[in-house]
């Protein structure tokens, strides 16, 4: 849970230098939620993108794609 949003993991695409994570986002608020890329930032994250929209309307879902370098998952 991220505030009024629930993130469901969908898939991870793994390459030699980067991983791409895809989450389905569902709003739990009765009002529209404007999503912000910064909410999904952590060390190693290189890009965040929402598809098809960055605004969650009541009862709707959208996806977020997060690109991170391998340093984010190395021990």
What would you note in describing this structure?
By secondary structure, the protein is mainly beta. It has one domain. Helices cover 0% and strands 53% of the residues. It is built from no helices and 6 strands. The chain has strands spanning 5-14, 18-27, 33-34, 45-51, 55-56, 61-69. Strand 1 (5-14) and strand 2 (18-27) form a beta hairpin. The two termini are 25 Å apart. The model has no long low-confidence stretch (mean pLDDT 90).
Could you give the order of strands across the largest sheet?
Answer: 1-2-6-4
Number of strands: 6
Rg over alpha carbons? 13 Å
Uncertain segments are none
Largest sheet: 4 strands, antiparallel
- Helix and strand content put the structural class at mainly beta
Shape: elongated
Our count of helices gives 0
Oligomerization status of the protein chains: single chain
Number of domains: 1
Query: N-to-C SSE series?
Result: EEEEEE
Query: What is the residue-mean pLDDT, rounded to a whole number?
Result: 90
Strand content: over 45%
In whole angstroms, the N-to-C terminal distance is 25 Å
Quick overview of this protein structure:
The chain has 75 residues and is mainly beta. Helices cover 0% and strands 53% of the residues.
